[in-house]
Amino acid sequence: MKSAVIPHHIAIVMDGNGRWAKRRFLPRLAGHKQGVESLRRCAKACAERGVKVLTVFAFSSENWNRPTDEVDGLMQLLAGALAKEVPSLARDGIRLFFVGERASLSAKVQAGLVQAEAATASNDRMVLNVCFNYGGRWDIAQAAAKLQAAGAAITEASMAQAMALAHVPDPDLLIRTGAEMRISNFLLWQAAYSELIFSDKWWPDFDEQALDASIAEFNQRERRFGKTSEQVSPVQAV
User: Fold this and answer.
1) Which pTM does this prediction carry?
2) Which helix (H) or strand (E) holds 24?
3) Active site annotation includes 15
4) Which of helix, strand or coil describes residue 202?
5) Residue of 17, 63, 69, 170 marked catalytic
6) Whether residue 219 lies in the annotated active site
7) How far apart, in whole angstroms, are the C-alpha atoms of residue 28 and residue 223?
8) Residue tagged active-site, from 15, 139, 170, 172
9) Which residues contact 225 (CB under 8 A, 6 or more apart)?
10) What is the full per-residue pLDDT of the chain (238 aa) written as tens digits?
């Protein structure tokens, strides 16, 4: 029997926190707090299964358009999560990267991101990319601007090296929770050949079993990268 392949890089759009809270007659921020718990559980499960890179969409550049109290609550939640979670992530060998535009974040939040990255910089068990104030279009635009400023030619290869996630390979599997079937400006460049899975579960309910089911479905996919099935899986001669 063919052994299961564990995706090297899993990316997740963590959607459904607000709806999870609304179903329980709770404020939306309660859903986001539960979403942090789900992220902790998912990161641990990914590391245990041998995933080498986990990238999550925590706050998009479009989320600034949400109600002010929700945005303020998310910022406070991030600051609290950094203080609480970074020591355990460091002990578990997980290296943190915060990916996104930082200039519009408060000085306190920016300092927290830098400190968290520094505290986990020597870890090599798994990389956890937290995309915060991130957008796929922003990523492509900043990469092109970086190359233009350097006077470098803009090619697929040079763009790939200038992207905000150039420190990791492209995701093999992209999961979106919350029953929405779109990627919402997430990893537009990097997800060109990712396998896409859309889960009906809201993010706070996405557990180890749901992760394993997604990996199992990933193993049913044939990844051709533009080739034919015969090229990817040639029939063995008898």
Assistant:
1) 0.91
2) none
3) yes
4) coil
5) 63
6) no
7) 38
8) 15
9) 193, 232
10) 467 899 999 999 999 998 999 999 999 889 899 999 999 999 999 999 999 999 999 888 887 777 888 888 777 887 778 778 899 898 999 999 999 999 888 888 889 899 999 999 999 999 999 999 899 999 999 999 999 999 999 999 999 999 999 999 999 999 999 999 999 999 999 999 999 999 999 999 999 999 999 999 999 998 787 778 777 766 543 3
